[in-house]
Amino acid sequence: MQSGKKVLAELRDNWEGYIAAFFLTLVILCVCSNVFMRYVLNKTSPLLEEVVSIFFIWAMFIGSAGCYRKKMHIGIDLVVSNLPSSAKKHVELFVSFFMLFFIAYLTYLSLVFSISSYSRLTSIMRMPKAYVNIASSFCFSLMTVYAFRDLLKKLGEIFPRLAKRSGKGLASI
């Protein structure tokens, strides 16, 4: 029973990575089958090329959301790491505010873009491009939630009395 809980905890903690890996696996399978078709059967499949593009887009955005949640994106903190502890916390709070608003704005822009692309169709499958573009909206929405959670955590670190009043803490959302 304990191992089942560990598996569920692992899935919960890394679900974005598993979904991105699934899509990347599909990308590899489609590319390999298209290479086989090209060199053995002397044919290529434009359908597979389009599917590869769609799967890669979804893998990239979902993986990016997972990386944001785990703070795996590259950052340059040379200046911040040399600041005193109190100043460092305030700069990190400012960065958290900035990231929340920036990612929320990207979410808005990606939603506008996805909605506007509904009438355009993909070239081979003839499905609305919104189904491809909604990947960015979905993942930027996830990142907005993660940025909000990070902001609450930073606020709780700077204002501990505020965090104590809320019970479990501000970032327990």
Order of helices and strands: HHHHHHH
Binned, the helix content reads over 70%
Global outline: elongated
Q: Which segments are poorly predicted (pLDDT under 50) over 5 or more consecutive residues?
A: none
Strand content range: under 5%
The pLDDT mean sits at 89
**What is the tally of beta strands?**
0
Number of domains: 2
Structural class: mainly alpha
End-to-end separation: 27 Å
Main sheet, how many strands, which sense, barrel? none
**Total of DSSP H or I helical runs spanning 4+ residues:** 7
- Radius of gyration computed on alpha carbons: 21 Å
Keywords:
single chain; 173 residues; mainly alpha; 0% strand
How does this structure look, described?
The chain is mainly α. The protein folds into two domains: 1-74; 75-173, no CATH class. Helices cover 77% and strands 0% of the residues. The protein contains seven helices and no strands. The protein has helices at 2-13, 15-40, 46-69, 78-81, 85-116, 130-158, 160-165. Helix 3 (46-69) packs parallel to helix 6. The protein is elongated, with a radius of gyration of 21 Å. The model has no long low-confidence stretch (mean pLDDT 89).
